[in-house]
Amino acid sequence: MSERFSKKWESRRDDQPFTDRIKTAVRPPGPLKPRLDFAVRRIELQVQKLDQATERFSQRDKTIFARIVDAYTKHDTARANVFANELAEIRKMERLIINARLALEQIVLRLRTVSELGDVVSTLGPAVGVLRSVRAGLVSVFPEAENELGEIGNLLSGIMIEAGQGSGMTLNFDTVNEDAAKILTEASTVAEQRIKEKFPDLPPGMPGIPASSLGEKAPTETS
Question: Which of 72, 104, 127, 169 is the Cys-Cys partner for 121 at CB 3.0 to 4.6 Å?
Answer without folding.
Answer: 169
